[in-house]
Write a structure and sequence with these properties.
10 helices; six-stranded mixed sheet; alpha/beta; globular
Length: 274
């Protein structure tokens, strides 16, 4: 197994250290959209897909004018082109595991129409059901009009087991046992982390369960702007807080065996991609 760390382009809101904790206020913050490309004997596997190519062609429809104006997302790093730059075909991507279906994580699904998309039932229901206020902000139904090949995981799936101190962890159907879906609800209804056994140790892509590396410290810290944004977009705050505490305990107790990272922390992406 070989794992590639890819950046599909994060947001760049003005305010600098208020969002990324780095020096300077009068600049755009550094962000990432951390995806994984996994080379495996079963074929290529993606974890999340970024904004996708259509964000370049029709950004107002695919991403939304309001988000573009407010957060200045980087849209010229589609994952499909990065896969091709590594010497693969898009059709080599057989499976995609999504942490959730927010527009900056699921926008690239349409670039891999033949891939099976592994998703939690509660997340798919949030997209297909009536939209609440937060759903209107985060999901773009146009991104799913190509008809993804969903592989849906129910809450009561009999495959559920334990992984470290996390319950209801699932193996993904048709994928190797080294890849697990770890429930991390809170940011969205059906948000999951994706654990990958690389042999020497585990990677845990925690999606948007947290967004700043300081949140994983024993005494967690987070810049003000990032904290306000996290609070604003949370679907289940109590679940998010509880899961962040579990992640901190995982880092504290098993940091030698598990590398935990979020989707949007540029510091973590720079460290792992190097």
């Amino acid at each position: 197994m070989r794992v590639h760390h890819l950046d599909a382009g994060g947001t760049r809101p003005f305010g600098g250290r208020l969002f990324d904790g780095r020096p300077g206020l009068r600049r755009k913050a550094a962000g990432a959209c951390h995806c994984l490309l996994i080379e495996h004997s079963a074929g290529l596997i993606l974890v999340d897909t970024g904004y996708g190519e259509q964000a370049l062609v029709r950004p107002d429809v695919w991403v939304g004018r309001q988000l573009i104006r407010q957060s200045h997302p980087v849209l010229d790093l589609p994952i499909a082109r990065q896969v091709e730059a590594l010497g693969f075909s898009r059709d080599d991507v057989r499976d995609i595991v999504v942490t959730h279906l927010d527009l900056d994580h699921a926008g690239g699904l349409a670039d891999f129409p033949r891939a099976t998309v592994h998703v939690h039932r509660a997340e798919l229901d949030a997209v297909e059901g009536p939209f609440g206020h937060r759903e209107k902000l985060r999901y773009r139904r146009v991104q799913f009009e190509h008809g993804p090949k969903w592989s849906v995981y129910e809450e009561s799936d009999s495959r559920a087991e334990r992984w470290f101190d996390f319950q209801a962890v699932r193996e993904s159907r048709g994928l190797p046992p080294e890849i697990l879906m770890v429930p991390l609800a809170g940011h969205t209804r059906g948000h999951v982390g994706v654990a990958v056994d690389t042999g020497p140790g585990w990677l845990l892509h925690a999606g948007d369960a947290y967004t700043f590396h300081g949140q994983m410290r024993a005494n967690p810290s987070m810049p003000l702007g990032a904290r306000v944004f996290q609070w604003y977009v949370d679907t289940g705050r109590r679940a998010r807080i509880e899961n962040q505490q579990r992640l901190r305990e995982l880092v504290s107790d098993h940091g030698d065996a598990v590398t935990v990272f979020s989707a949007h922390c540029a510091t973590e992406f720079e460290r792992l991609s190097s």
